[in-house]
Amino acid sequence: MRAIHWLIGVPTIAIAVVTGLAVLLAGAIALVFATAETDTAGRAQIPGLSAEVSVIRDTHGVPHIFAANRLDGWRALGYAHAQDRFFQMELARRIAAGRLAEVIGPPGLRSDMFMRTLGIHRLAAESARRLHPDTRTAVEAYVTGVNAWLANPANARPAELIVLGIEPEPWTVADSAAWGRLMALLLSGDWRTEVLRARLAARLSPEQLGDLWPDEPAASPTTLAALAGLGDAFAAIEAAIPDLFPAASASNEWAVSGSRSRSGKPLLANDPHLGLLAPGMWHLARIVSPEATVSGAALPGQPFFMVGQNGHIAWGLTTTHADTQDLYVERVHPDDPNQYLVPGGSLPFALREETIHVRWRGAPVRLTVRATRHGPVMSDMSGDAAALAGPDTVIALSFAGLEADDRTSDAFHAMNTAQTVERFHEALRDFHAPMQNVIYAHRDGEFGFVSAGRLPVRPGGPGIHPLPGWTGAHDWQGFVASDDLPRSRNPANGQIVNANNRVVGPAYPHPISNDWPEGFRARRILDRLADALLHDTDSFAAIQTDIVSLGARELRDAMLAALPPEARSGSNARMLADWDGAMERARPEPLLFAAWAEALQDAVIGDELGEDAHRIRGVRVRMLARMLRARQDWCDDTGTARTETCAAVAARTLAATEAVLRDSWGDTSRWRWGPAHRTAFRHPLFRFVPVLGDMLAPTIESPGGDHTVNRGTYRAVAGTRFDHVHGAGLRAIFDMADPDAARYIIAPGQSGHLNARHFADLTQAWRDGRYIVLKTDRQTLLRAGRTETTLVP
């Protein structure tokens, strides 16, 4: 066991040196996972229950909770979450609290320093203290259920706790609140674009910056000139940020009115896109009580369904991609290093001391966290960043998700219990972070959309790059009033669609996003909705699993047009020209397109961007198409003797791509997208451990691409593999004629225990576009011989 702990604790580079030992130890750990037990049957006690509660697992492992009242239902949900996903919950709270290094040693230190600097768990505790009394009662009921499972010595512990030697502490209300803070952080990453733009401004012209972000406001070289020389400091800050979750965030949602529905009631579809891990982010459940029958998907550790229905109203979410973060460069007072400059004078840094315990280290790490009026000082996280920023400068982060009075938990509680549209809208006033596009449909026939959250008011204009903090010219002036945020209610055309695309036109008075995702998914959804006058859950399911990429079509056309005539007549070029853009597993065209597009973009922007080229994540369709069509100076190799046209670059990269694919996959007749585009649901912690991460990951070939409705976002590996790392880990469809008959699917499965039958049993159904329906009565479940847990006071 000491050897296992050592393996997990040493740096990855050292693990690579002892690969043979890693294989043996990985086998030992796998044995622990294989023999660990799960417990989803029998009787258990929960303090505070008003009556007996029955928790029956259906054939997919989804708990159906039959309770005497809503509070008992939340108590039982806490117990069920702990049964299924406690290690996931434990990992999330340790990440949020900056206590990961306590159990995995030095590899967790970077994450802990980041979280302690932001103060995520400290802020969560403050949110918990400010909860509305009704919300607090609900969360406390849930917490009681979690702790009842923890307190029972007969319950088997997750294998990860055994391997890591963790003795879990009781769950708290603050631990539940911390999950919301983590999601706000995960879904808000505009500061990374600010860092990249600041670094590139030193080497690119304003016109070139505009080529990279063609839909954003023009760069401001005057402001950036005041911050010259800090590019390396920004890069050092970025290097200090942990890779906690696969990057990217996106989602689809749409709804139609009863006039467009076969049932005569509104239909709603939602599929949030996050990193694909095992266990997945989402956990399905259904709670039946006299107050309501509620079902949906929650994040284990929180009692409320983030996507779901309560018999009256159904709701879903997409990320707004709002700019809710700004980096500020602050000047330290020249005569007093304990103060920083502000308009008209100076202020002292707010100071906080943090102690981080690191496993296998004798002494803890002491961290002094400084904060300015804008937020925590990020350059203090890294010695390199602090040194590069210099003694007279610090870099601070302002983020709407770091406000102490965040009431998003209150919003979700009210959304889960709302019976009217008016009450639902009232709930959204408390929705603070992350900013989300909330779509809803009511059984009475209403449907609508609200961009909910805290959007900064920026009199100085959009925050497209790091800003000088000492002038006051770029200070936020509060947040946009809830009633002034974008919304739509019962639109005359009978439909609402959002796929992270732009939600307002140029006339909207407040900057929302500087980096809207390209709108290909939204366009495809609109096209599919227009294919039929009336829709039902089947047609909505067909749209959710649609794999035609309008983005691939657009870029394919630009790439082929850039080729010289002789290259355009080649067999592979002709094959691409005839392709309809369907990212099918059995087709060769998606593989050729993805590989060529990746190689072509690298060739076009690589010399200008240098080492920063890899920070342009994924192939940007409109950016690359614009360069090939109208900004062909990008095709010259800047700073080299080579002078190429875009036609020459396109032909050279196509020929190189064909050769690489032949070497890896054989001749063209053997090229297939599926084998190259595999989804590996990796363990959230052990994915960083060689050998073990692969052993524990359910893997399946999958369709789709970056711009398909059925999202198949990939990460290119050596130009021949395109690992599917991000997509719709949850899909939900609601017909408000019968909301309890909602369709759901998650991936890879309900359980977080690797040896459990429900750990990955939904993977193929998810890949193939199948769904499960939770509408089942207690007697039917029992007659089917399903597992039952009886919870008693």
- Major sheet attributes: 11 strands, mixed
- The Rg value, from CA coordinates, equals 26 Å
Distinct helical segment count: 29
Low-confidence stretches: 1-18, 218-226
Oligomer description: single chain
The average pLDDT value, as a whole number, equals: 91
Count the E strands: 29
What percent strand?
15-25%
Please estimate the helix content.
25-40%
Strand order of the largest sheet: 1-29-2-3-6-7-8-9-17-18-20
What is the approximate shape?
Answer: globular
- What is the distance, rounded to the nearest whole angstrom, between the alpha carbons of the first and last residues? 39 Å
Structural class: alpha+beta
Task: Name its key features.
793 residues, eleven-stranded mixed beta sheet, eight-stranded antiparallel beta sheet
